[in-house]
Design goal:
With 486 residues, the chain is an all-beta fold. It has helices spanning 206-213, 337-341; strands spanning 2-3, 10-19, 29-36, 43-44, 57-59, 62-64, 70-79, 86-95, 103-113, 128-133, 139-143, 146-152, 157-167, 173-174, 179-180, 183-189, 193-205, 231-236, 254-258, 264-268, 271-280, 283-287, 299-309, 313-323, 326-335, 346-352, 361-367, 374-384, 389-391, 395-399, 406-408, 415-421, 427-433, 439-446, 451-457, 466-474, 477-485.
Length: 486
């Protein structure tokens, strides 16, 4: 229960990750927020587009999230209703059967009075200034009424302080080893070196971060997979005129890197702020660390594949762009879809890392266990020297002995769901015949290795009530299913 009394622009921001089955024009899985002032009467919070990343679909006028594979943490922000004293929230999730996905994850919930928002203009032509004379209050630096940075001086007199934002609007930049964020800032107080650390908030937009995550063109460059993996690079130059929007003239100063563990990324307005402590001031950049600056991730995985070999064996191959302090790769498998959905992975082998490198390196492992059937799901557990670890993406391999395809509901008033599982890239031809054997519909679906669902829509008037034959053709396998429309 949050108090929002006296707030002029009450706002909810949070971190969210989504993997809800999206069936296009038909609702399969969805999630949304509700709010209440009294805990008895509940209302849907917000609508599609009425915030940042807030809902993406509308079904029969009801707004919600229904999106697959948006599994990286990202900000979601929505304005709250005004005129309330207290507010509380609940999360509603709806799901149909069969196809299982990760669902919805929520963290970092903040309710606050959003009176300014994040600066979303171009590179500032000149810095903005504030006098920081001590105390523990936050001093905000704004341009056009929007936040660029904030400083909490920790009872230290920093004197007149200049802050400036530099915004890159061309393709995402890289230094040959890593990509870096489209926004950087400078903070230049009169007192550049403090006795104790002050706290800085560096504001940046979600749209800029998405550009960084999706950057291409440098195959060997590292980049974060999500905003929470961003670190802060700090550059100090004895001549502060070189502290600006360029890395090219950073030749005589000192770099420091604060990796993702040593700062906080807070969802806020149309993006985030990263909060960290410093004792001296300079240029500040956002990046994931890369090979030269002690990347917070143990390995940069370029690719990971699992392919059938000799009808029974499975060859796993992975390629890394860099390795720093990696101890070993543990190969894990979930035997069957039930085991995968319940995350029952078991270790089946391991390979030791070949040591630190900034070059491309290849590994492979063969699963030779006899009697494979159904679907096997493979992943790597990448273990660092300090026993921290990350998982690779999951790669399914199908052995068709006991794969069953299903249609539900059946009988139906016109909408049938076909649940199937094909190898990655494998195509399935779908033919639909009426009771007289006439072909009434034909299309093709492509598999991704996981359980999938497609809709067979017999609702239009042209489809009469009665019996239809659904013929599925996948290479040497042909399956026929009877549909009943009532």
């Amino acid at each position: 229960c949050y108090s929002i009394t006296g707030m002029t622009n009450p706002t909810l921001s949070l971190s969210i990750a989504l993997d809800l089955e999206d069936c296009g024009g038909t609702l399969c899985d969805g999630a949304y927020f509700e709010y209440s002032e009294n805990g008895k009467t509940w209302n849907r919070l917000g609508s599609n587009g009425a915030g940042t990343n807030w809902y993406n679909k509308s079904y029969s006028g009801n707004h919600l999230w229904s999106v697959e594979n948006y599994t990286r943490w990202h900000v979601a922000t929505v304005p709250l209703p005004t005129g309330l004293n207290n507010i509380r929230f609940r999360i509603v999730v709806t799901s149909d059967p069969f196809v299982t996905r990760e669902g919805i994850a929520i963290d970092d919930i903040h309710v606050y009075d959003n009176t300014m928002g994040i600066y979303d203009g171009v590179t500032m032509g000149s810095p903005v200034s504030q006098n920081i004379a001590g105390g523990t209050s936050w001093i905000d630096f704004t341009s056009s009424g929007k936040l660029v940075a904030s400083v909490q001086p920790n009872n230290q007199n920093m004197g007149n302080t200049d802050v400036q934002a530099y915004i890159n609007t061309s393709s995402v930049r890289n230094d040959g080893l890593q990509y870096y964020h489209n926004r950087n800032i400078t903070i230049k107080p009169v007192t550049t070196a403090l006795a104790d650390s002050a706290i800085v908030r560096f504001y940046f937009l979600d749209s800029e971060t998405e550009s960084l995550i999706n950057a291409t063109g440098c195959s060997g460059c590292t980049k974060p997979a999500m905003a929470c993996e961003l670190g802060v690079t700090k550059y100090n130059d004895p001549d502060d005129s070189f502290e600006n929007g360029s890395l090219g003239d950073n030749v005589q100063g000192i770099y420091s890197f604060y990796d993702a563990v040593w700062n906080r990324k807070i969802p806020f307005d149309k993006g985030y702020y990263v909060e960290f402590r410093v004792k001296n001031f300079s240029e500040f950049w956002l990046n994931n660390g890369g090979p030269d600056l002690q990347s917070p991730l143990p390995v940069e995985l370029i690719s990971f594949t699992a392919k059938k070999k000799n009808d029974n064996d499975v060859l796993l191959h992975w390629q890394t762009a860099m390795e720093q302090n990696v101890n070993r790769y543990e190969i894990e498998v979930a035997k069957g879809t039930d085991s995968y959905q319940q995350q029952r992975f078991v270790k089946m082998g391991e390979l030791n890392s070949l040591g630190n490198t900034n070059s491309v390196r290849n590994y492979q492992f063969t699963d030779t266990e006899a009697g494979k059937s159904g679907v096997r799901y493979y992943r790597l557990k990448i273990v660092d020297n300090d026993n921290t670890f990350v998982y690779s993406p999951v790669r399914p391999v199908i052995f068709k002995n006991d794969i069953q395809w299903q249609v539900y509901p059946n009988p139906s008033g016109g909408v049938f769901n076909l649940v199937y599982q094909l190898a990655d890239g494998e195509q399935m031809k779908i033919n639909l015949y009426d009771v007289n054997g006439k072909l009434v519909s034909q299309f093709t679906e492509t598999g991704n290795g996981f359980l999938q669902k497609t809709i067979i829509d017999l609702q239009p008037v042209k489809y009469a009530k009665g019996i239809y034959l659904l013929k599925l053709d996948v290479g040497e396998k042909i399956e026929s299913l009877r549909l009943i429309k009532y």
